[in-house]
Amino acid sequence: MDTAGAVGQEPVAETPGGDIAVHSSLRTRDVDEARAFCRRMYYGPIEVTPTGSLETFAFSGEVVQLGPVTIGEISYGAEICLASGSLETAYHVLAPLTGGVHVRHGGAATTADPSRAAVFRPVGDIDLRWSADCRLISVKVDRLALERELGLILPPGATFGVAGGPGRSWLALIRLLHAEARQADGLSLLPQLLRQWRELAVSGLAQAVEHPYVDGTPARPTARRPRTVKRTLDAMHAEPGRPFTAAELAAIAGVGIRVLQESFRQHVGVPPLTYLRRLRLERVHAELSRAGPDQLSVSEVATRWGFTHLGRFAGAYRERYGVSPSQTLRDGY
C-alpha cells in the first residue's frame, strides 16, 4: 500500500497443521501506528522511539506470517531507538539491506550491516539504534522450531556473515520466500511446497548460525542445552493448553522439580511454568490478532490455550502487551 496510514492484512494460504500464511503491510508517518503494527506482527512489549526530527519519519513494513516463521522488510526513514525485554518464546534475526543497526543484547554489543546479520536468543534485554537509511529483513522464528535444528546455545551478541557461505544462501532464500508468499499466483497456490520452504528457512538459519563465517573465520558456540530442558520445551510446545504441573514437567524431564527449575533459570531464563504461561499468552495474542470480534470470543481463545481463571489471564495479558485482550480482538494488535 502506498497510502500513509493504510494497513492491509490478507490471508495468503493455509498449510497443513493449521498454519495460515498472512501478508500484512503498512506505510505511515505516524509513530504510534508503526509501533502498534510492529507489536502486532512481532512482539507485544516493544518500544519504538525516534531520536531525531520526525520530518523524515516514514515507516514501511511488508510482513508475511508463516506459522512459526514471520518475515518482514522494515524501514523507518529516520534514526530510531527500539527496546524490548527478553523475547522468551522466539529467536530473531535482523539482516540490514542498507544502513546499519547498533545492537546491545544481554550486555553484549555488536553491529549489523549488509555484510553481517544479528541474531537474538530468547533470553536478554534488547536495545537497538537504527540508522535513518536502514532497510532490513526482520525474521522471527518460534523458539522450539529453531531449537529442534540447533544443537548449540547462542551467546549474547551473536552474528553471522551474509556476504558468503551459509548465511548468504539463507538470506537469499528468506528474501525469495518473502516475495513469493506475498504473490497470489506464487507459493500460495502450493501450500505443501510453502511449508517445505518454511522448514528449509528454519534449518538453513541453524546452519548459518552454527557456521557463521564472520570475517572469513568459522566460529561455533560451545555451550550445549541439557536434554532435560529440551524434553520439557518439546512437551510444552506440543500441548501448550495442557494443564501441566511442575511435578509432571519434572517427570517428563526425568529429574526432580528443583533441578528442572534451576536448569530452566540457567538456560531459558525463567522457571518452567512461567515459560509455559508466556507461551500460552503468545498463542492467545497471535490468535486474537488474526481474528475479528464476530469470529470468536476472548474467553473461548483463552480457555483453549489453558487459561482457566479469566481475571488473572486478562491481567497477565495487559501486563505483557499493554492492552486488554478484547482490544486486541477489536483492533488487531
UniProtKB/TrEMBL annotation:
Residues 230-331 form the HTH araC/xylS-type domain. It comes from the Bacteria. Gene3D superfamilies: Homeodomain-like. One of its GO terms (molecular function) is DNA-binding transcription factor activity. The keyword DNA-binding applies. The keyword Transcription regulation applies. Keywords: DNA-binding, Transcription, Transcription regulation. Pfam families: AraC_binding_2 (PF14525), HTH_18 (PF12833). InterPro entries: AraC-bd_2, AraC_XylS_family_regulators, Homeodomain-like_sf, HTH_AraC, HTH_AraC-typ_CS. This is AraC-like DNA-binding protein. It comes from Actinoplanes digitatis.
